[in-house]
Specification:
By secondary structure, this protein is of the alpha/beta class. It folds into two domains: 182 residues, 3-Layer(aba) Sandwich (Rossmann fold), CATH 3.40.50.620; 123 residues, Rossmann fold (3-Layer(aba) Sandwich). Helix content is 28%, strand content 26%. It contains nine helices and 16 strands. The strands form three sheets. The protein has a nine-stranded mixed sheet with strand order 9-8-7-10-6-1-4-5-11, with helices on both faces. The protein has a five-stranded parallel sheet with strand order 13-12-14-15-16. Helix 3 packs across helix 4 and helix 5 packs parallel to helix 9. The longest helix is centred in the first third of the chain and has 17 residues. The chain starts with a strand and ends with a helix. The model has no long low-confidence stretch (mean pLDDT 93). The structure holds flavin-adenine dinucleotide. Flavin-adenine dinucleotide binds next to helix 6, helix 7, strand 15 and helix 9. The site of flavin-adenine dinucleotide has 28 residues, from helix 6, helix 7, strand 15 and helix 9.
Length: 325
Amino acid sequence: MSVAVVLERRAGSWSRMSFETLAAGQKIAQELSVPVYAAIAGGDASAASSEVTSYAVDKVYSIEHQLLAQYTADGFTAAFEQFIKSASPEIVLFPHTYQVRDFAPKLAARFGKALISDVVSLRVDNGRPVFTRQLFQGKLNADVTAGNEGPVFASVQAGAFRGAEPSGGSAVIENFSVSLDAARIRSRPGDLFRESQRSVDLSNAELIVSVGRGIKEKENLPVVEELAQALGAELAASRPICDNGWLPMERQVGSSGQTVSPKAYFAIGISGAIQHLVGMKGAKTIVAINKDENAPIFEVADYGIVGDLFEVVPALVEEIKKAKS
Ligand SMILES: Cc1cc2nc3c(=O)[nH]c(=O)nc-3n(C[C@H](O)[C@H](O)[C@H](O)COP(=O)(O)OP(=O)(O)OC[C@H]3O[C@@H](n4cnc5c(N)ncnc54)[C@H](O)[C@@H]3O)c2cc1C
């Protein structure tokens, strides 16, 4: 029995989530007392593999092929299918990236399995791996187990684990050769998507006031803007606010927005979905204002105010102004 962790690179750089997934793999392998392997596919896999040997893994599999130099679902599925059939891991973990979402369900289907996607934690129960997924925007946690026969395929949500760090190990690299046929790769990759330059850099902000759907409508934004102004803070938001066009996309914090680590982060009317938390839980101090005492944001908050933001925020602004005058 073993655990294989698929690490992802994009345009020659590691996906940060690869090492978070590696940490998840190390944890479950340790609980099961089985080896953990890293697997890397690409056109430069062997060079990339040598960067992983210092992590606490039992082996690094390098799956190098010129047809893997650019990602295609057909190429990656065929390569990992051959690798999994040969190495026979019981558990295969992926970072829950856009690329993985594209090919991993198809790969799992090749083995007659489903992908247990977007896992936020995992553990061993009665000798079997149990994967936790969030439902209804984080309101429910579902424990998922797979059938008795391996392999089990699961993808790990961004920010669910702290990224693994090198541990001074010296794992061996095993080159795994795959046989790929260019004629069976049906898509032709185009240029990589490049994000446009951001004019707001929240990553350097010391104070952030962030607003969520609790603000109810765009016309109410001045309530939080006043707080940001009084504190000298940058204004940020959860995704629904930016999706609605109430604030520009570049002010979105979270897995598909910016990652911030200010001295203080005020989360106002934000429930605390995992996709938001991954972008801000590195803040030194988190202050949450929410009328629902069970909102998940309070689990990461240093200071929590259970109350109506339309009452709490103006009162806070008044006190700040008094303190400053
Ligand atoms: C692939 C993917 C990527 C995503 N990326 C991101 C991302 O980058 N960033 C992000 O933020 N989300 C992201 N999301 C969305 C995420 O799952 C949540 O839906 C989102 O974070 C919820 O935003 P919210 O907390 O503002 O809204 P809600 O979850 O609706 O929460 C609103 C909160 O306001 C509170 N509230 C309501 N009225 C008041 C009041 N008067 N006073 C005080 N509190 C009040 C409620 O109790 C509630 O907790 C992503 C989702 C997916 C699937």
